[in-house]
Amino acid sequence: LGRWVRKFEAPCAIATYATCSILMVILNKLVVTTYDFNYPFVLILTQNASALLFVGSLKAGGFVDYPQADWQKVKRWTPLTLLFVAMLVTSLLALEKLSVQVSTMIKNTAIITTAVGDACLFQHTFNRLTLSAFLLLLSGSLLGVTNDAWVTTEGLVWAFLNVFLTSAFQLYMKTLLNDLKQEMGKWGPVYYNNMLSLPPLALMSVHNYAEWSEKVQEEVVKEPAVLGYMVVLMVVSAIMTMSSFWCIAVTSPTTYGVVGGLTKAPLTIAGIYIFNQYPTPAGSVGIVGALAGGLLYSHAVSAEKERQAKEKAAQEEILMSGMSPYPRYHSGSFFDPGASKDSLMDLCDVGDMEAQIPVSATESFGRRHPPGFADD
To answer: What is the pTM of this model?
Structure first.
């Protein structure tokens, strides 16, 4: 039985994460446009609260663990949480004013801004394949956006603001986790982000409580399905919180990023058919190009990680054999048998690239990006 569980655990985790990722976007779009529930703070408040309740239940059951809140961690994590809230709100506002395909294409460009920020802050470099992916992604997005009949200026403003907030969130989280990774653990970021996001979201929801509560009552009487959709959104949000980390745990951060890129295609197709927002022929070409650029970037990251892993393994094998990987003349030989093992380790350290893990309750972006990847 254990062998069968291990065999199907990874496909189940991938399928669960991909399904929740698509459902989050489609259901949010359905609620804010079809049922005209234009209260993003209320929607995100209920989704984050359900995710926090779910994670708390998992900890109470002994399935996960994370540190309890303390004032020092709260102070350091609060700026990141404010970015988290702003990222979710702008994502929902952009989704309300744009078609699903345009919103998805623009959010995907967060890959580029995050990568540029990564290069500036952490000295990461780009290879030709990565640059080709960026060019394809940008050109496809530009073609798709300029040929879409449902583009609005307000929607574009929210979408591009979301791109920069997504990159800022991912880069700041990476910087913060460099110092707090051991203390926070795997589930700490999920707990802190959702917990600290509730007060500002509640504050923004209270000021127009009478308005949105009346809207909910009207919609429930007129169309009871809207309440069902909101409940499903809360459940999907909680499951997505679990499935994101489940997917990473049983596969790898790279696979998680690739899955996030692959979900963009069915998400775009579903959005076109469900909301009856068909692109022009030129727009279709742009959509295909933008999606291909995102997939090419995922492939480039995966190939780079594989290359680094092979290089590191080869260097470790050379070190185990007692030979230097750097040729030099010594006593008629290309190798220096007198070199110390510690000095060789210093020369050959290749370090693993850190994965960026998105913790957005609404998709992340993608990230998407994991971290460094945006899904929405």
So the answer is: 0.76
Range 17-43 burial, b when 16+ CB lie within 10 A, else e: bbbbbbbbbbbbbbbbbebebebbbbb
If one compares 66 and 102, the residue with the highest pLDDT of the two is 102
Q: Is 373 helix (H, G, I), strand (E, B) or coil?
A: strand
Candidates 311, 304, 298; CA nearest to 353 is 304
Q: Which residue from 131, 146, 109 is spatially nearest to 286, judged by alpha carbons?
A: 146
Considering only CA atoms, which of 153, 152, 156, 140 is closest in space to residue 283? 140
The stretch 21-44 carries a mean pLDDT of 87
Judge whether 167 and 367 are in contact, CB under 8 Å: no
**Contact indicator for 255, 13 with CB cutoff of 8 Å:** no
User: In this structure, are residues 108 and 262 in contact, taking their beta carbons and an 8 Å threshold?
Assistant: no
Give tens-digit pLDDT for 205-253: 887 777 777 777 776 667 777 778 888 888 998 888 778 777 777 776 6
Handedness of CA 66, 69, 73, 79 (dihedral sign): positive
Residue type, 44: I
Listing DSSP states for 232-281 in one string gives HHHHHHHHHHHHHHHHHHHS-HHHHHHHHHHTHHHHHHHHHHHTT-PPPH
- Angle, helix 253-262 to helix 225-250, in steps of 10 degrees: 140
CB 107 within 8 A of CB 163: yes
241-258 burial: b if 16+ Cβ within 10 Å, else e: bbbbbbbbeebebbbbbb
Collapsing DSSP states into helix, strand and coil, what is residue 94?
A: helix
Single out the residue of 77, 73, 136, 108 nearest to residue 268, CA to CA.
108
Rounded to 5°, the CA angle 264-247-73 comes to: 100
Strand partners, 333: 330
To 5 degrees, how large is the angle CA 261–CA 264–CA 266?
130
User: Contact, 100 vs 25, CB < 8 A?
Assistant: yes
Give the DSSP H or E segment for 366.
Answer: strand 366-369
